[in-house]
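Bug report (template v2)

What were you trying to do?
Predict the complex of my protein with histidyl-adenosine monophosphate.

What happened?
Run completed; filing so the output is reviewed.

Input:
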Amino acid sequence: MEFRSIKGTYDILPNDADRWQRIETHVRDFIIRAGYSEIRTPAFEKTELFTRSVGENSDVVSKEMYSWTDQGGTDLTLKPEYTASVIRSYIQHNLGAKSPLTKLYYLDNLFRRERPQQGRYAQFLQYGIEAIGSSHPEQGAEVITIAYELLVELGIKDINLKLNSIGSSECRNEYRQALKDFLQPHLDKLSETSRKRFDSNPMRILDTKIDFEIVLLEDAPTITSFLTLDDANHFDEVKIYLEALDVPFTLDTTLVRGLDYYNRTVFEWISNDLGAQGTICGGGRYDGLVEKMGGNPTPAIGFAIGIERLILLIKDQTTKFHKNKPHLYFVSLGENAQIASMKLSRDIHSALPDIIITNDMSVGSLKSQMKKADKSNADVALIVGEEEVSNNQLSMKPLKGQGDQQSIKL
Ligand code: HAM
């Protein structure tokens, strides 16, 4: 039997890993410069953490989690998202006591059992930030601006920021009822998914991709007219900041997001180049989550970006991430030569850590090692034989461009 990777998962092979590493390094450096510190939480948590935060009726919890009961009878789940886990850790370690504002970032694998397709995987790499402790619109504007500047810096074009406010839970209750009243007469015409959502989570019907439902919803009440004065003022402030900071956005009253913990500002960046999986970044405010999970009431806002989708979008634009490091290839002929080259590699690395050195360990002939050096993409071959060892020298042969072999005294 031949084993293959599980559907929805993928291998990153050596010739591609470089590109991933560079993007990972880039996004880390970018956010550290903005004053965010890394947090890493375990790959799995208690299942209840996600049912309580993301919501029992959300697609993520009801359909997409990899969950199991361990031998001790504990219900566990591979993390389908990071925010709940970050908040669990924030409360557990009392991070709020150390500073009134906690700014965190993460870059880690998550797991969702969705139907795999381009840009949608069972295991995916997510990069996100959470700013915990401020309810001010300024904080929302900062978080959104950070995502915008990163996407611009990465050269991602043709993306559109959709922005909405879903207000506080009181106004959402009223809005839900109004939406249900509007949809009730059309219930038998709605799709099965929307009929289910009608009872469990009616605002998610606004997310429909079915033409008939989209047209029907054009006349539906919008959340905007249900916002409290405070909610509306808060949202106006966010918009004023974004305009002042030149962050373009489109208002979209149908944007509700699929996770239950959000309130007030929600946003998504959509790309037209990703087909069905167009959302590259999603986020929003979640002022009630810390308290709901057992902590002191603490407002927060954050976003997350799918790295696979990012990589699909910057595939042809990676030149700025492809600064190759100098690469030396040691060809060693004989035992003493092998030892000399390995020692020399150690010395070169401690003096010049950025150089790549391949030591040929094949114990092959000069010809066969040189063939491999040529194929390796190295810049220079350093040839060491017994004679070179006794004369304390080596031969250097350029592998790219012009140039003759020369002897170098060590
Ligand atoms: P989300 O919208 O569920 O939000 O996911 C954020 C991003 O993760 C998506 O826009 C997408 O790029 C990527 N993503 C999600 N699922 C998959 C998948 N199956 N395959 C590939 N990429 C995927 C959250 O997870 C929230 N925790 C974001 C957040 C942080 N809100 C506040 N703070």
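What did the reviewer find?
The pocket of histidyl-adenosine monophosphate is lined by residues 81-83, 112, 114, 119-121, 124, 126, 128, 130, 259, 279-284, 302-306, 308-309 (CB under 6 Å). Residues 14-33 form the longest helix (20 residues).
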